[in-house]
Write a structure and sequence with these properties.
By secondary structure, the chain is an alpha/beta fold. The two termini are 20 Å apart. It has a single domain (5-242), classed as TIM Barrel (Alpha-Beta Barrel), CATH 3.20.20. The chain has helices at 11-14, 26-36, 47-53, 55-63, 78-91, 104-121, 139-144, 151-164, 177-183, 212-218, 227-230, 235-242, and strands spanning 17-20, 42-45, 68-74, 95-99, 127-131, 169-171, 190-193, 222-225. The protein has an eight-stranded parallel beta barrel, surrounded by six helices. Strand 3 (68-74), helix 5 (78-91) and strand 4 form a beta-alpha-beta unit. The radius of gyration is 17 Å and the shape is globular.
Length: 244
Amino acid sequence: MTTPREALLPSDVKERIIIALDVDSANAAKRIVDELSGEVGAFKIGLQLFTACGPALVREFAAAGHRIFLDLKFHDIPNTVARASAEAVRLGVWMLNVHASGGGEMMRAAADAVAECSEAEGIQKPLVIAVTVLTSAEHETLSEIGVNSPPEEHVKRLAGLADASGMDGVVASAREVNAIREAAGKEGFLVVTPGIRPINATGDDQRRVTTLRQAIAAGSNYVVVGRPVTEAEDRRRAIAELFA
């Protein structure tokens, strides 16, 4: 049964929700978009769906007026990341990301390419954000790759570098928002928080998770939620319950 519209979240909250389309086909993604269009702020296309369907689906959704966060986490030599970022602009995405661990030169190359392509082709410039530490990672994960700092400290370091390199914001857990605000001096620097879960849910493969209410209270500008909504029998009700 469809959830009554009055049970849904207020507009100022729902506009900050990005639904992760982590599904294996265009039809599955379109069903979710059709059901939730107008009830959330944007949709995220990540590695699974992009690998299954390619850029055509991104272009189709963007052309239909949906705000699309292209979550491919570019991480390569600066020239390659710059060229890939320019292609993302041409797809019409609203937001795209790179890995902050790629370094300042790489992030600056992406930011510059996005700005130049947008201006040259008369396209609205998308937001470019940098991934700090994945919300599935903990201190042990960082230690395995030679990072001995606690996650919050490493996030803070990468956020400062991202800010200095021209990024519009970062992807990080809500637990690190205060540290990010300390590290990034740019006014309007965004924090996009994945790993959003209902208060009574397990974290599955996510670790540094928070609820929707906690993330907004902490100062996250946008939140990304996937399985708790996309795998629910009533997706619209599942969104409303995230804010319980």
